[in-house]
C-alpha cells in the first residue's frame, strides 16, 4: 500500500516536483519525499544500534519528526538482541562499530537469521573488506555517516518496501 488515492503514487506528486528545474533523479527523489511526508508510506518502528550518542540522537530526531517510532537506542550487539526480543521492530538501523565484542555486521547477521528483520547499516568508513562482509549478510542497504536526511529516509522507505514485497513472496 504505497498510495491510498491512485494506482501510480509518483504520478500525483509529479506536478509538484516538475516546476523545480531539476533532473529526473532529483524529481524522483522529490516525489518520493512528498509521498513520504504525506504519510502514504508505512511509518516504522525502528531499533537504532549506534555507539555514537550524538549521531544516534540526531537520527532519532530525524526519524521521529517524520512519524517513525524509535523503539530503542542501544550501543552494543547484546543490547540489540535483547531489545528485539522484548520489542520487535519493523527495521534495524545498525552501526558497524559497537561497544562490546561483536561488531554491527556480526549482530546484523544474527538478527537476519534469528528474527528475519530488515537491517540497514550506518557506516562512516565503508572500506572494501567491510563492504564485502556487509554484502554477505544480505542487509537491505547502508547509509553513510554523516548522513543526509533525504538519503536516510529514502533508504529506510525503500528497505521497508522491499522487505514487505519479500515477505509477500515467501507466503
Q: Tags for this entry?
A:
single chain; 171 residues; alpha/beta; five-stranded parallel β-sheet; 7 helices; 15% strand
Structural commentary:
By secondary structure, this protein is of the alpha/beta class. Helices cover 53% and strands 15% of the residues. It has seven helices and five strands. It has a five-stranded parallel sheet with strand order 2-1-3-4-5, with helices on both faces. Helix 3 links the parallel strand 1 (45-49) and strand 2 (69-74). The radius of gyration is 17 Å and the shape is globular.
- The backbone outline, from C-alpha atoms, is globular
Based on CA atoms alone, the radius of gyration comes out at 17 Å
Assembly state: single chain
Tally of individual helices: 7
Q: Biggest sheet, in brief?
A: 5 strands, parallel
- Number-wise, the strands total 5
- Helix-and-strand structural type: alpha/beta
Strand/helix succession: HHEHEHEHEHEH
Quick structural summary:
The chain is built from 7 helices and 5 strands.
Secondary-structure topology with pairs:
Elements: H1 9-18, H2 24-37, E1 45-49, H3 53-65, E2 69-74, H4 77-86, E3 91-95, H5 104-115, E4 119-123, H6 128-136, E5 141-144, H7 149-170
Parallel strand pairs: 1-2, 1-3, 3-4, 4-5
